[in-house]
Structure formats: C-alpha cells, structure tokens
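Hi F.,

I've been meaning to write this up properly since the lab meeting, where we talked about keeping a consistent format for the predictions we share between groups. The idea is simple: the sequence comes first, exactly as it goes in, then the structure tokens exactly as they come out, then a line or two of notes. No screenshots and no reformatting. I'm using this chain as the first example so we have something concrete to point to.
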Amino acid sequence: MSRIPLNQVELANQGMKDRLEMSTAEIGLAVRTTNCLEERGIFTVNDLLHCTREDLLSISNFGEKTLEEVYKSLEKIGFCRPVRPGRPR
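Output, unedited:
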C-alpha cells in the first residue's frame, strides 16, 4: 500500500488511458472482426473510437451485425454508443 494518497482524478485518468490503449483483440471481439479492423489499420480502442459508423461499415465484410458486436464490446469497457437521431436510447 502506498503511503502517498493517490488523487482519484489521476486514477480515473489512468484507467481511461489504459482502456484507450487496449488492443481490439482484448475487448472481446471475434477474431474475424479483429482481423477486419486490423486490415484497415485499427489496432486500439482509441483508433476504433475515432472511426465513424460509416467508416466501419465501409470495411470489407463488416456489416450491421459486426458493428453491433463492436458497440457491445465497447459498452462492456465503459464506452457508450453514439446516439443517432430517431433512435431510442
């Protein structure tokens, strides 16, 4: 145990940094999905979060079901899916 109290904000920031640096393979995606993403140069959660829905759907063999898999995996590690107009929360 540390004798120096750690600031809760610093801990939260480190947790966020750790999650952003996770590889796409670490978040529970199917191997095929991970391979599709890596072929497009998407290797980390941070890379994935910088992609739009349209970017992802433009990947070969990447459809609505795969997109849903990605969103669910991101939600499991604390990232919410984007809210689209007309879609219930």
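Notes:
The first helix runs from residue 8 to 20.
Helices lie at 8-20, 31-39, 45-49, 53-57, 64-76.

If this format works for you, I'll send the rest the same way.

G.
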